[in-house]
Write a structure and sequence with these properties.
With about 300 residues, the protein is an alpha+beta fold. Helix content is about 45%, strand content about 10%. The chain is built from 12 helices and 8 strands. The strands form 3 sheets. A 4-stranded antiparallel beta sheet has the order 1-2-6-3, with helices on both faces. A hairpin with a 5-residue loop joins strand 4 and strand 5. The N and C termini lie far apart (about 80 Å). It binds iron/sulfur cluster (SF4) (2 copies).
């Protein structure tokens, strides 16, 4: 006959075995991501959505897919020299490629987890079908930015972008939900945003307003959407100027660009005065070709 003590030990053993299996599963997922070229991966327990309470209840993982216990967030970096050309066909193509790659990764990781016996689900990179859909209802059914924050990948900056230590905001995310309880990653506590105001100053629609009482700024989503609509009409969506000018991200070190912040901050004015300003030639050349011009030439304030 099994004694009470033995039962307790058996219970602990089963729990311990489950923890060991989940640690092993985490290693397998990280290996999958490394082999597939994923730049960032983090693990968030679904309770973090409830604990923080920032995301409305219907938009939390368990409301979308009740078996979810962990959200795995994968990120792909957006190389800075291409982001700097925005708005351009070069930037648009990279953006589309990153989104397609993220959806493929999420689809493949979901099937990989299912094959290992863990029920899984993914939410695609962009949860909207058109600008008209966004104009009617300006949000997706699930947001990757809080998911990436809860998965320990970064903090939200003044621009409302997620800033990561590695890439700043020049990174795109996708989220996979799984019924497995995978050991979580710690969240980053210290804000990465240094409130330099570059995003607010360079936004062509003045959609970002700095706040003195907190890091995250006020954000005019309708003004940003207006910019997006203009760029979609010209076939060089998205804008992304607020991601381009953000100084955060260790990856900047590989590009060695002394004085680049001054260059960003002076761009709109310089190009308004002289669209052929040689200082900006490498970017304006790429903006000139392959897309409709729109009403005005130049960077940002178009
Ligand atoms: S994407 Fe462009 S318009 Fe929107 S907030 Fe950023 S800089 Fe402003
Ligand atoms: S540009 Fe400056 S203020 Fe804006 S998010 Fe980046 S660090 Fe923060």
């Amino acid at each position: 006959m099994e004694t009470k003590g033995k039962k307790k030990r058996a219970g602990r053993g089963t729990r311990g075995e489950l923890l060991r299996q989940n640690r092993e599963l985490k290693k397998k997922i990280i290996r999958f991501c490394r082999e597939r070229g994923v730049d960032l991966v983090g693990f968030a327990p679904v309770e973090r959505w409830d604990e923080s309470g920032e995301v409305p209840a219907d938009f939390r993982p368990r409301a979308i897919w009740p078996p979810a216990k962990t959200v795995i967030v994968m990120g792909l970096g957006m190389p800075l020299p291409i982001v700097e050309t925005t708005p351009s066909v070069v930037h648009m193509e990279m953006y589309k490629t990153a989104n397609a790659e993220l959806d493929q990764l999420a689809y493949d990781l979901t099937r990989f987890l299912n094959r290992l016996g863990h029920a899984s689900f993914f939410f695609p990179r962009d949860g909207y079908s058109s600008m008209k859909a966004l104009r009617e209802n300006n949000r997706a059914a699930f947001a990757h930015i809080p998911a990436a924050r809860y998965a320990g990948l970064g903090t939200v900056g003044a621009s409302h972008n997620l800033l990561t230590p590695e890439f700043g905001p020049r990174v795109r995310f996708v989220s996979v939900f799984t019924s497995a309880e995978i050991p979580p990653d710690p969240m980053i506590e210290k804000d990465l945003c240094i409130k330099c105001e570059a995003c607010a100053k360079c936004c062509p629609k003045k959609a970002i307003r700095m706040r003195s009482d907190r890091v995250v700024g006020d954000y005019d989503d309708q003004a940003c959407l207006e910019m997006a609509e203009e760029l979609v009409a010209r076939r060089c969506f998205p804008c992304g100027i607020c991601t381009k000018v953000c100084p955060i991200g260790k990856v900047r070190n590989i590009y060695k660009q002394p004085g680049v912040m001054k260059k960003y901050l002076g761009e709109a004015e310089a190009l308004a005065a002289n669209p052929e300003d040689p200082e900006y030639k490498t970017w304006t050349h790429l903006r000139k070709y392959g897309v409709a011009r729109g009403r005005k030439q130049g960077a940002g304030k178009e």
